[in-house]
Amino acid sequence: MSTATYHRSALAAQMAQQLLRPSFLDTSLRSGLFLSGQRRVGKTTFLASDLIPALEALGAVVIYVDLWSQPQANPAELVHAAIRKALGELQAPGSGLLKRLKSVTGLDLGVAGFSFGFKLAELGKPGGVSLAQAFTEVVDQAQTDVVLIVDEVQHALGHTEGDAMLHALKATRDAINTRPATPGHFLFVGTGSHRARVQELAVKGNQAFNGAVTHEFPLLGREFVDHVLAQVQPQLGDKTPSGEVTEAAFRAMGHRPEELMKALNVLRGLPVGTDANTHLPTIAQALSAAAADIELQKVEALGALAEAVFARICGMDGDARGLFTTDALRAYSATLGRDVAAPEVQAVLGQLMGANLLMRVRHGHYGVTDPLVEAAWRERQQAIALMQRAS
């Protein structure tokens, strides 16, 4: 069972317009755009199938790199390799990238490709050409914008060369975009599934892109649900659920396409005559609970103090503060049966954020990264309370 390719053309066209032809209110996007969202909600598919083609249709040179493709690799080297590959294609007269650029922008290079005043092999190497110089030459020859998209950008954090690479990209942005008569701009788009770390890239003072724009990735909705149902109806037949019920189930599963397909496959395996509208919500709830349990087990694995801190945050409606107050420390101490100090709480918060379980909402305020996990925790606590009352 397949959803085929679902295109979000209107959203991609809008984003491409805001990035490349910004109104006055959208010019801040030139400082950098960071999109964060949960895992498996369609970010990478949207980038590859919709946003990149939309950017290219407006004449931009787009370079894409996925840091998750090789999570153990040096993130800086992955980015530099992607840039070298793209610039190599611009040098090659018959390359697809160069042909597409010529056809969209009308760029006249004759039969030649780009000619750079540096060796591509030196890019990213100690003492080699800087990213600022390299991209300045690209913009000047292409007479258009260059967009670098780094997927799962948070993998560059905490890595010495990754941090240096981000600062080099910031210097590139400043060098190109501040020129009075620049023929094009350099735009950086970072996406990631670790919401806390992606947001940190734009809000933490020591980060290269501090002050850049951050947005939640726009989730799939009813139009996607209708598309899926149209695709699977021939296979499900009378077991095809209604759009309303499917939309609610999709929402309950965190707007994750893979989970929706799992649920519909379960429906397909049920006996003929099954009431799909009755069974799909139950299936969705079970799949959501199973996924949330995996995350809650991560909290438990971090120890009793992590559980106590997580519980306190869940009990404060997802925007918790005062996690280091005297009252909070007293509560942790009572739960653990020993004294708990503020540095211990800070360390545990770091571990919970590092596991993508918590995120910093704003200074001093924390929330659960995945709302489904928070809801599962609440349901678990309610079940425990009911059992305790029954006994």
What does this structure look like?
The relative contact order is 0.10. The protein is flat, with a radius of gyration of 24 Å. The chain has helices at residues 9-20, 43-57, 75-91, 96-105, 131-142, 160-177, 195-203, 222-236, 243-252, 257-268, 276-301, 304-314, 326-336, 342-354, 371-390, and strands at 33-36, 61-66, 146-151, 186-192, 213-216, 358-362, 365-368. Helix 5 (131-142) packs parallel to helix 6, helix 8 (222-236) crosses helix 9 (243-252) and helix 12 packs across helix 14. The two termini are 46 Å apart. The chain has three domains: 9-216, Rossmann fold; 230-293, no CATH class; 302-390, Orthogonal Bundle (Arc Repressor Mutant, subunit A). Helix 6 (160-177) links the parallel strand 3 and strand 4. The chain has 391 residues and is of the alpha/beta class. A five-stranded parallel sheet has the order 2-3-4-1-5, sandwiched between helices. A two-stranded antiparallel sheet has the order 6-7.
Please give the CATH class of the largest domain.
Answer: Alpha Beta
Number of beta strands:
7
Alpha-carbon Rg, integer: 24 Å
**End-to-end Cα distance:** 46 Å
Compute the number of helices.
Answer: 15
Q: Which runs of at least 5 residues are low in confidence (pLDDT < 50)? A: none
- Give me the strand/helix succession: HEHEHHHEHEHEHHHHHHHEEH
CATH topology of the largest domain: Rossmann fold
Structural class: alpha/beta
Q: In total, how many domains does the architecture comprise?
A: 3
Mean pLDDT: 90
| Rough outline | flat
Sheet with the most strands: spatial strand order:
2-3-4-1-5
Quote the beta fraction.
5-15%
Share in helix: 40-55%
